[in-house]
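Table S2 (continued). Query chain:
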Amino acid sequence: MSNEGYEMEYVKEAFDTNWIAPLGNNVNEFEQEFAEKVDSKSAVALSSGTSAMHLALKAAGVGEGDIVFCQSLTFAASTNPIIYQNATPVFIDSDYETWNMCPKALEQAFEQYNPKAVIVVHLYGLSANMDRILEICNKYNVPVIEDAAESLGSYYKDKHTGTIGDYGVFSFNGNKIITTSGGGMLVSDNEERIDKARFWASQARDKARHYQHSELGYNYRLSNVLAGIGRGQLKVLDKRVEQKKYIFDFYKKELSDLPGVQFMPINEWNDPNCWLTCILTTGKVRPLDIIEALENENIEARPLWKPMHLQPYYEGYDFIGEGVSDWLFKNGVCLPSDTKMTDEDLQRVVEIIKGLW
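Corresponding output:
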């Protein structure tokens, strides 16, 4: 969290006005301010990124028996809501150029299946090849849901990630670039669908004097207190992105000459938020060597996300691709990337890693 104090100002407002529940000025303003920040026509603040993904799928018309294409190299929150809707995931491989959904594999999947929606993920703040992906999905008239949980503040060409497809999903979990401790946002230029998502998220309560429900609803609205934290955090987003990029550049300057080390790809059309700095190590020093060396000094590093098609729960579902995501998982490491890290902290990490070569 920032030390600027914006958060407490809005939280105090929530308590002073006695609007603590999932109603109130902070929620309304957070939605509007967020939509303006990412240049989307409408937004609804929700209890998590997972709930935002769930409502995006519902808004896209996904239901029982439908097929949904989903990037395999991602966190389970991208995928689990497909199951909530009693639909069937088909996992799509990544490519080396973006680490995200491979357009070639996506084309192959369309030759075999007729999906109801496609979920593309902007992993670690790196944008997918959206022009190519949209070209394919538009050909088949299939809506695109962008999982931008890790990429708030990233741009694809001149557009914010999460605003290029039909729906954009964001997360404010504690580990994200800005946080409300827990929370999420669903955005779209389709204001009617966002209004419907807001209705579903509020237990689908009909406009009646009594409590009446004609549809299945969910308790997915963000509280006014947490929305106040979000409003304060949004003010420091640009500063966070700047610091994340500084951390990436620091690591790259210090480590890119090590044999077998590659950094995550930054393409000319991609301006990432560098949420996490990730590397590949393909020589004698393996990812686990780096993770354990840092762990011995009480410093946390992690592997890349384990692809969904390799997860025990999802291993029975189809996977389209050549195993690029498997290879990235096998060789990737997420380095410590917290915005509070000092140059001394970064140098300490660097020296521990260099000591392995």
